[in-house]
Amino acid sequence: MAEDVAARLAEVVGAAHLLSGDAVPEDYAHDEELTGEPRRPGYVAKPATAEEVAGLLRVATEHGVPVTARGSGTGLSGAARPRPDGLLVSFERMNAVLEVDTGNHVAVVQPGVTLSELDARTAEAGLQYTVYPGELSASVGGNVGSNAGGMRAVRYGVTRHNVLGLQAVLGTGEIIRTGGRITKISSGYDLTQLIIGSEGTLALVTEVIVRLHPRLAHGATVLAPFTDLDRVLAAVPRIVASGLAPTILEYIDNLTMAAITHTAQLALGVPDEVREASQSYLVVGMENRDADRLHADIEVLGELLGELGAADVYVLDGGSARKLIEAREKAFWTAKAAGADDVIDVVVPRSAMAQFLGAARAAGHRREAGVIGCGHAGDGNVHLAIFCKDPDVRRELLHEIFAEGVELGGAISGEHGIGRAKREHFLELEDPVKIELMRRIKRSFDPVGILNPGVLLT
Amino acid sequence: MAEDVAARLAEVVGAAHLLSGDAVPEDYAHDEELTGEPRRPGYVAKPATAEEVAGLLRVATEHGVPVTARGSGTGLSGAARPRPDGLLVSFERMNAVLEVDTGNHVAVVQPGVTLSELDARTAEAGLQYTVYPGELSASVGGNVGSNAGGMRAVRYGVTRHNVLGLQAVLGTGEIIRTGGRITKISSGYDLTQLIIGSEGTLALVTEVIVRLHPRLAHGATVLAPFTDLDRVLAAVPRIVASGLAPTILEYIDNLTMAAITHTAQLALGVPDEVREASQSYLVVGMENRDADRLHADIEVLGELLGELGAADVYVLDGGSARKLIEAREKAFWTAKAAGADDVIDVVVPRSAMAQFLGAARAAGHRREAGVIGCGHAGDGNVHLAIFCKDPDVRRELLHEIFAEGVELGGAISGEHGIGRAKREHFLELEDPVKIELMRRIKRSFDPVGILNPGVLLT
Ligand SMILES: Cc1cc2nc3c(=O)[nH]c(=O)nc-3n(C[C@H](O)[C@H](O)[C@H](O)COP(=O)(O)OP(=O)(O)OC[C@H]3O[C@@H](n4cnc5c(N)ncnc54)[C@H](O)[C@@H]3O)c2cc1C
Ligand SMILES: Cc1cc2nc3c(=O)[nH]c(=O)nc-3n(C[C@H](O)[C@H](O)[C@H](O)COP(=O)(O)OP(=O)(O)OC[C@H]3O[C@@H](n4cnc5c(N)ncnc54)[C@H](O)[C@@H]3O)c2cc1C
């Protein structure tokens, strides 16, 4: 039976592009979720076209094989972790930038293209795809799957705001195209938006039209230490309201700052006494097409930060600015190396961040668990590393933190997704009416339920 | 039976808020669609709460009564035109601004609030809801229904990009809340985005969280006549690429310009010889929080327009700028008064506008029909008034124009919606696989099919 399936799948993609059994490398058994056990899939197929993807789904339907899509496997929710009896569809061969269309400010790409490759290609045209999750080996298809965000979302929005159209294969094996090289459309339900963030449970994406923005020639990074965390969080809405439109607006707590600068061997020029008195930092990235305007804005920002209670304000030079941003991007690896037991990314209304963080830290404190982190403060998106070995206590702690976030009008995940890792919490905390509605919507795309079972809903 | 239904509906909203039979004023029999015959609904109910809306839907389900939602009835697609046997749910009593939340830059509103009311309320806080369709008596619920756009969409996006959360009642009578006071979320399917643009066919919206932006203190409007239409359209992508980020980027053809300035009795200071040689105009709105930057940008824009072939460049003074924008907003009324037989708003990739317009005008020419207009050029959204009395010829002409738009990678409607007016064309031109998928999605929300039958899909 398994051999029969393997033979059928190999017929679709060619024997060279189908792995099964022990021939499947360990890397395909997981994504970057910290808590899930790696699970080698029954089969890995590497299709080259949408038609091949459709062929794979037809075989999977016929044999009842669960299907998991995989981009680069850098996701943090376990949504690309396959089932042992399942088929992993890896998009690594569908990795071309098909077109950079400067007239319409879009790029047309295959889903497996990495962000670094797309960044290089758009740079040639003076344009950029502005979704920058910390990990540039991630794929555009993975961005679509998780509705990825990253540091620049405060200015440019998340994946949802930067994807204009898709080609996708439904669970039924039917191929559709949605949206286009257009920024607005009012002609039927928005299937593009519905598929974005669906974590491979509605359709497999085989082509993506992404929106591009001009690259701005001049940039600077400002670092402001604050003596207390509440003040840094209270500063955030004021900076957003200022109209300075930062491209980056991050908070980093002192433990996280110590860890990431230590790992990166990065000296930021903050004097010892300021550093020792600082509970938290704000990192503000500014960009402008005009150097004079940039400098004028940085001055306004500096004054504003002073008024808002910053202990000091540092305009970092190019080298250390880049290194600090890179160190922030690698915060996940630092947390992992430090032994973090989980990493979460609750989103709450910007003005509720202080209350949320206070509650989350208190919940950790009561259980002698570490709750430290940083976050896309401009978006109210708080990234916390959880240090708590006992899985039952951790479960309870996470539940309390997620419930607090939801209670404050937020959601369990701002950008990483629910996946396998947070599914149980999601099903407990989300309105059952909406869960049932989402299940019906899923059946509209995937009547037999072959797409990523165990993720999000089921 | 009808009396029984009326009694049941009156129980839900109170007798004072239920009209039926001859007591229904004519205004409820139509929206602003040019082609459809007015049809007085069986009942008009004016609920005050989400619970009352749910109660109405339960009665409607029980008695198989089709339900149409109505905001202000300014829509152009016939989507708020009720069925003679149906219930019109008017949101005129649910018209409060519940909160302007400056910390999170959002407003929480009831769906029946008009754009002018919301504009006044947000102005007090120095903020703005940036969706400005030409008609400010329109409601926010209607914006959500049609995914309205308007002139400022080139900078701020359409309704879809400015609505963060909803309260809505499904066809089943269940009440849900989606999204929140947050700009990103990756926790399940995006129901907010799915409901936006669904023209009252999936759910009735009972509360809306809209995103607000800072009001910019300084603004100017630039008018540039061009001797040929292709050149004006070719200029558009260049202006978008310039990074000047205009708030308005409209093209207006010479006939339309003559008509709207005549109606508004507006003298723009364009000398006769320039006006006579001009085929088309570009109107560019610029705003900035800083007056010096605004002026510098206008200078750059002026030079760029010169390079791109503008016959001349006029920076309009405040009074005539405002009047020109108002006249452009009223283009629909001007077209209607001039006897236009239909008004359409095809969207195509920005770089394909010239080709699209050429084909549309040629298609009109072959049938001795008038095809003139203006459009949100920055978005590739072309608004055309169609002068063609014979309904069969007109149908054929529209079909050809829509097919051309779709062929070029666009869609039948960029912001007005499909409604009743364009449904037949939509069903003919859209991929049947997507139509069937949308029908299944609709059934997930509205299993019995009471919500706006005859609109969009069915
Ligand atoms: C160091 C580090 C930092 C990170 N920082 C951020 C951050 O700041 N912001 C952020 O949002 N994320 C961040 N991430 C998470 C991750 O990079 C993003 O979620 C990214 O979008 C995943 O891309 P991927 O190609 O690795 O996807 P994968 O992990 O392969 O897959 C992610 C999801 O998308 C689905 N999928 C993949 N391809 C397709 C397809 N073609 N069709 C349908 N579904 C598909 C998968 O099934 C899965 O559900 C970080 C990760 C790391 C390791
Ligand atoms: C002069 C003029 C200029 C215009 N210019 C533009 C323009 O530039 N751009 C643009 O996009 N539009 C434009 N329009 C069209 C119109 O103003 C917009 O579509 C507006 O959003 C309609 O709002 P309304 O309250 O009048 O909606 P209605 O006409 O009452 O309804 C529109 C749709 O929304 C649904 N709906 C209404 N309320 C709800 C609710 N609470 N829950 C669920 N569904 C609901 C209705 O069923 C219908 O499908 C213009 C119209 C006119 C008359």
From TrEMBL, chains A, B:
Protease in keyword set: no
Alphabetically ordered keywords of this record: FAD, Flavoprotein, Oxidoreductase
Alphabetized GO MF terms: FAD binding; oxidoreductase activity
FAD-binding PCMH-type domain residues: 36-215
Obligatory cofactor(s): FAD
UniProt xrefs under PANTHER family: GLYCOLATE OXIDASE SUBUNIT GLCD
Full protein name: Glycolate oxidase
Organism whose genome encodes this protein: Amycolatopsis arida
Top-level taxonomy: Bacteria, Bacillati, Actinomycetota, Actinomycetes, Pseudonocardiales
